Amino acid sequence: MLVDFNTLPEESKVWIYQCNRSFSDEELKELESKLDLFIENWTAHGSDLQAGYKIVYKRFIVIGLNHQARAATGCSIDASVHFIQQLEKDYQVDLLDKMNVSYKQGDFIAYKTLSDFKKMAKDRAVSKNTIVFNNLVVNIAEFNENWEVPASDSWHSRFIK
User: Fold this and answer.
1) Which of the pair, 73 or 18, is modelled with greater confidence?
2) Is residue 23 domain-shared with residue 63, that is, in the same domain?
């Protein structure tokens, strides 16, 4: 069951898929239609899941699930991964590689491999004040408070001297 992401409880589970590029306005319209259809039909053992999504900065797909209403099962999680894999094929993008880092450079969202980010930290091209996206947050409360933070407040801090 598709619900407005902003109405989900703060304890709701989140999955964040960062894209290696921004989606175009036309792609965003298609993407929203595909997400609407997927989530409207997303089930666990035949029962509807209460879920919503938001697309942030034309680049991050954030899916929220009210697991208190009904928890996702292995099969429903597999279905969501297959859906994301299909989006990767449809738009020729990378959404599942967790070994990449997104961060802000002014108004621009940069996307680098973890090894490139480490090198940039060593070369002081990024600092503890660089705004990074902590895609390891697990629920909406953490997403709202700790997703977009200075590198010093995230797991990225281990690379910054």
Assistant:
1) 18
2) yes
